[in-house]
TrEMBL record:
This is Aminomethyltransferase family protein. The lineage of its organism: Bacteria, Pseudomonadati, Pseudomonadota, Gammaproteobacteria, Oceanospirillales. Residues 399-662 form the GCVT N-terminal domain. Coiled coil: none annotated. Residues 683-764 form the Aminomethyltransferase C-terminal domain. It comes from Amphritea atlantica.
Amino acid sequence: MTIQQQCAQDALNKSSSPRWYRVEGQGALRLDLHVGDSVCITSADSNQGCELLFIDAQGQPLDSYLAQNDLVKVCADKAEGALAQLDQQSDSALRLNELLLAWGIGEQALQQAFRFEAQALPDFEVTQEATLIVLCCGRDMQVADQSPVTELQVAHYTVAESSLPQPLASPRSEFRVPRCSATSYEVKAGEWIQIIDVEGKQCSDFIAFDAVALKEGREEPLDGVATRTLNGLTLPQPGLHSKFTDARQQTMLEVVQDTVGRHDSFLFACNSKYYEDSGYFGHINCTENFNRSLSRYDIAPRAGWPAINFFFNTSAGDCGTIGFQEPWSRAGDYVLLRASRDLICASSACPDDIDPANGWNPTDIHIRIYPATCEFPRSVGYRITPEEQSRMTKPTGFHGRTSALTKHFTEYRGYWVAAEYQNYGARAEYLACRERVAVIDLTPLRKFEVLGPDAETLLQYALTRNVCRMAIGEVVYSAVCHSTGGMIDDGTLFRLGQHAFRWICGDSYCGIWLRQLAKEKGLQVQVRESTDQIHNVAVQGPQSRNLLQQIIWNGEACTPVSELGWFRFMTGRLDGPDGIPVMISRTGYTGELGFEVWCHPAKAEQVWDRIWETGEPYGIAPLGFDALDMLRIEAGLIFAEHEFCTETNPYEAGIGFTVPLKTKTDDFVGREAIAAQNPASRKKLVGLIINSQEPVSHGDAVFNGRFPVGVITSSTYSPATKNQIALCRIEPQFSESGTALEVGQLDGQRKRIPVSVTSLPFYDPERTRVRS
């Protein structure tokens, strides 16, 4: 059972459901406590302590609060983490200082905070009203250290009425849309609209008109057909478009933040016909509520309003049929929009109580309008586990440099990464990597510090590789499987010491999985996520070694970059013994000679600048994810949810070399299922040469005559082979190089594209370049 599940179970024994909060590492949380409330604080990895400060209505510390609320017996000592963090004068110190100043808390008040160790985090009943500041603080972690400040979860059981999330800034205005009603309102160009689901699972339909056009007697509303066409979608889709337009195809609104990720666009707001067809005559509905609300602007009533259906959880079947279930939204979830022009808007709190659209219980919607002078970052919500609060997309430490070179960003694993760069393009970026040197921001890789006397035992059991054979300073590539042999993730393991490892992968769930295995086995080991403390770029290409050896200093006992072996790493500094601490590994995802450079995010821009200026004589270029995809497919390297998933074992994913069944005699998760599989029956990952210029795509079926025998997992045009190429998982009988097959399109039978099977990798089959 996870920590969140345990607290959720505890909630069943309390008088009310908790409000959940996440306190990120080096962050803080402010809560108003009422008599009768209770608070439970837990550590995500069971190794993070906290500091608590209680203050009264005048902002003064309440020194006696610990004794009055029976917390003295678990309190460790006076707090030191927050003060140590503020003393650094780093980015984390500035962020914390700004937050505390906004709450009116100075350094003198912080000296009255108290520390609680991870093994004694507080769970207490509130007997006196106060404001609680939860501090999850500590110094920045340098790249060679393994002591990150990790997140806390706070469950607040409160007697207070439903509360809203803290405003994103100071609102210009805010108002409630009561359940089963609609409200119209005016927004100026550049202003921000935050639409909040107050209690969760409540849909809110939204429509908007050009305010200037209305004054001139014209109705110019949001237009579903224009919006979908410009976004390349033919049917209503779950999720939101980034921009919404009018019939002239001019932007009216932009979506800036979304904590839910599940909505619909331009289905009708509920109307009388829907209810009458269901047998509910005279049922109140959003359309009639809109008609009444908009009448003051002389907008003609309609029988049905095409609307953005916020929080409406729809799905579209393969044949286009629309279905829906309960919303994903929880109390406090929201969407943040920005108006591109003066608008007349209307929002509803949908009255539908005859189906799951509002979780069978219509509730309120809350609206906040922020002035145009505000600035909010673009972000979307995601969750690692179903029960946790939504997490929001972040910029990487290198974003200040990459955003100066491109506006083409995509969300990947909770971070914004460049898809391609202006004045370069994917083909030029690809060529720079193959011929010279290129640099790519790979910060979204997850980093976990695995420490303790049983660290090797845990990793030997959790990973498919033989961890016991690893030397200090070595890196191995491995898979992580569950009991069926299906892959949870792949990644690289760094051995930093006898009992100290760093696991670098793609999915944050790996940390939860490793901690779960450690608990099941009763192992003495810590698994702590350090992603927020270690950001990284890959420097790849034939000139990468020449570039880095000019700027990386190493101690006398450390291997220099010029001599660093393949899948080895070293620690050093930038430009000398007093420079920025960095870790350099000879790893990459391109099939070229290359390295990865790891540093603290506060120093990321300085590291980027130094790499860039040193690389200019070599013709350095930035590298986006579109070009990276070309490179990794040519190199035959696999990607999550393409070449592998939890139903694909490492052999079927093309990385059977990571499963040494003969030489690794120790048990590992998935071993029994993998060993029980007949090797001759396993599907194979092969390459396909596409004997046509017509594009093929991930998911296309590969046919032998009438029958499908494989599926394309990834495809691209290969400048190296001057062909379109693909990776394909195929039945073993058809995996021999030279086998002629066809890709089927238009239902697989109406169109065929000839292909031929080839071995992997397509580029540098002996891998001489990456080993050079």
